[in-house]
Amino acid sequence: MPYALRLAQVMGSDSLRELHVIVSQAARLVLETETKNGLALLTRYATAVWDEKDIGAPPASGSWRHNGMVVCPCSMASLGAIAHGLASNLIHRAADVSLKEKRPLILVPRETPFSRIHVQNMLTVMDAGATIIPPCPGFYARPQTIADLVDQVVGRILDHLGIDHGLTSPWTGV
């Protein structure tokens, strides 16, 4: 969850950008387990917070315009649902809409190791247009803190959304 919190903090601090958040029941549990006041922190930066059961919310419609969607973290259950077009909640439906409308969809998987089924589902969503960004920071930038590692992953997510940030510097070679 540190990736989701940092992503929300960076995106939500830009007054020119809207941040819409959908938090599943499972994510709420993980937030409470891994962080102090995680849900409050996550939603503080949001323009709007949608309930995962609210299938009539704007993110469920292709006519609702946005610049990209990030599922962070993405459980293997959500990955499987998205890969197979099963819109059982607002997260899955919004991801399905992102794919059909050809809008950026980034999935940040939360699992290790991957099973063959997980990898097949990743290939399926990639073939449909999604980007998979595993939270695997590199050490070439010589991170000093856990926050540096988190920023590296969040920076890559923002790069793929075309959002400028100051979290990391581009690689300039050895």
TrEMBL record:
<feature type="binding site">
    <location>
        <position position="24"/>
    </location>
    <ligand>
        <name>FMN</name>
    </ligand>
</feature>
<keyword id="KW-0285">Flavoprotein</keyword>
<protein>
    <recommendedName>
        <fullName>Flavin prenyltransferase UbiX</fullName>
        <ecNumber>2.5.1.129</ecNumber>
    </recommendedName>
</protein>
<feature type="binding site">
    <location>
        <position position="110"/>
    </location>
    <ligand>
        <name>FMN</name>
    </ligand>
</feature>
<feature type="binding site">
    <location>
        <position position="156"/>
    </location>
    <ligand>
        <name>dimethylallyl phosphate</name>
    </ligand>
</feature>
<dbReference type="GO" id="GO:0106141">
    <property type="term" value="F:flavin prenyltransferase activity"/>
</dbReference>
<dbReference type="InterPro" id="IPR003382">
    <property type="entry name" value="Flavoprotein"/>
</dbReference>
<dbReference type="InterPro" id="IPR004507">
    <property type="entry name" value="UbiX-like"/>
</dbReference>
<feature type="binding site">
    <location>
        <position position="140"/>
    </location>
    <ligand>
        <name>dimethylallyl phosphate</name>
    </ligand>
</feature>
<dbReference type="Pfam" id="PF02441">
    <property type="entry name" value="Flavoprotein"/>
</dbReference>
<comment type="function">
    <text>Flavin prenyltransferase that catalyzes the synthesis of the prenylated FMN cofactor (prenyl-FMN) for 4-hydroxy-3-polyprenylbenzoic acid decarboxylase UbiD. The prenyltransferase is metal-independent and links a dimethylallyl moiety from dimethylallyl monophosphate (DMAP) to the flavin N5 and C6 atoms of FMN.</text>
</comment>
<feature type="binding site">
    <location>
        <begin position="75"/>
        <end position="78"/>
    </location>
    <ligand>
        <name>FMN</name>
    </ligand>
</feature>
<comment type="similarity">
    <text>Belongs to the UbiX/PAD1 family.</text>
</comment>
<keyword id="KW-0637">Prenyltransferase</keyword>
<dbReference type="InterPro" id="IPR036551">
    <property type="entry name" value="Flavin_trans-like"/>
</dbReference>
<keyword id="KW-0288">FMN</keyword>
<feature type="domain" description="Flavoprotein">
    <location>
        <begin position="4"/>
        <end position="161"/>
    </location>
</feature>
<keyword id="KW-0808">Transferase</keyword>
